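We close this part of the discussion by returning to an individual protein. Part of our work consisted of pairing the sequence of a single chain with a tokenised description of its backbone. What the numbers capture is local backbone geometry rather than side-chain detail. The amino acid sequence and the backbone structure tokens for this protein are reproduced below.
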Amino acid sequence: MTRSTLVDEITERIAFQIAAGHLRAGDRLPSIRRLAEEHEINPTTVQMVLARLRAIGFVEAHHGLGVVVCDIESQGGIETWRYLLRFSRRLPGTAARILRDLLETLAIFYESTIARIEKDPGAYDPRPARNALNRLDRLVASGSASAAEVHQGVLAVLRAGASALGGGILLGVLNSLGPMLGDVPEVLDAVYHDQGVHVWWWEQVVAAWETGDVAGARAAVGLLDAWHDEVTERLRRALESQVNG
């Protein structure tokens, strides 16, 4: 096994202990020497593992205390969430909650977008989003698109809309959240269970943008709460069936 593979394996092992609650926020990790013995690796590799855990938001170094487990719920960032989703099959409840959080974050983006367009309806061109939506429509209509392909099509609509609004941090957030959803096949299957629904929903939103129908756009966003419940429950059931099976 190469060192990089070994670092990945030990990092995931410790990260899972934290995600599953076996190691709690504020707990101190054992010394480098103790970790090396426990995982049968050398101290240099332990240091690489700890650096990786710090980078993904699972631990932090404290002077005089050593390496301490972070509160990943309140301190975790995008990379923390991405790592947690990797444990979907072992932590179904956590995966369903993260998916719900991600979808609600996207809903906040939609609300923010509507508010910006409402302030100055003529300032933002909906044509790039319409073009991306037309491509998504053709993809779904083909009847042979995978969930991953539809996901990329939806991301293209999102990116086109964000770019039309000037890009910036919103586009950066989308570029981070989008790939996270695509990391776990079960998540894609849950989200894109009914591919046509995505085309229909985006048609409501883009058409409202084109006509200046702010109320229509908000009504479309208002439908998302019930859909979020349906999707997260579908994911939880799918993952739990794998665990129990």
Observations:
- The first helix runs from residue 3 to 19.
- The chain has two domains: 3-76, 92-244.
- The CA atoms of residues 78 and 173 lie 9 Å apart.
